[in-house]
Write the structure tokens for this entry.
Amino acid sequence: MTTTASQTSSALAGRPFWKMHGLGNDFVVLDGREHPIALSDESAAAIADRKTGVGCDQLILLEAPRTPGTDVYMRIRNNDGGEVEACGNATRCVADLLARETGRSNIVIETVAGLLNADAFAPGAATVDMGPARLDWQDLPLAREMDTLSLPLSAGPLANPVGVSMGNPHAVFFVPDAEAVDLASLGPGLEHDPLFPKRANIEAVTVLADGSLRQRTWERGVGITRACGTGACAVLVAAVRRGLIQGRKAVVRLDGGDLTIEWRESDGHVLMSGAASTSFTGTLSADLFRAAGLDETGARVAA
């Protein structure tokens, strides 16, 4: 990507971006590897705004590698501007982006949640080793000690979820018909339940006759999304723990498409395979930030 003079300043206006998505879970990707980018919650939310910004579920910031042997440090901000630990769909997109840039298929991505190894095995597709599923109550975390195989939580038709951490917290509810669940109404209360000190992603899941898993997700800090990669990993792990499927691998069917998830028995790591797509590229405009009451650096304009 060509660097312009405006990128070398502290201005966000004039910065180029990629608009990408994994099965409809969409991202704005900013490159701060050579010229670091300072993002506030407000400036991130302004970029993510679907009416006056570029629009996305998550904003992804690429930073220079911090650990030898890694290709990039990836930071993730939700649509509301808050930073989160992990995003599987974004990891596939970044792997695809860097594979095209470097000509290598194996990409190592560092995040707040740890190192993620990715294999961009074909253009627009990648497998990511999302690391081990974390199943202890402190890993999610939960407010108090309990068995994560059966959490004391319910709302409407949703009850008795499985708790799983994939670097971020998930509560997986198994129901007869995921399509019939009113996630828009039930999701906010469950996300903010006192059981989850850091809030939680909420999945409603149905085991289909062919052994695949139909997943719908209320994503923490975002709302209903067309796909959630870490959620798909958590769903597969939860189904295996409950004995609801044969083996440790299945297709997870999301609103935006399918992911193939495997929970490896040898080391407990979860592998996620699926598509990664680039929609368009562009440049952030100063007007985008003005609409949010910010200056070109993303700082709040004094009244």
User: Anything to note?
Assistant: The chain has two domains: 5-124+277-290, 131-274. The mean pLDDT is 93. The CA atoms of residues 97 and 103 lie 10 Å apart. The longest strand covers residues 114-122.
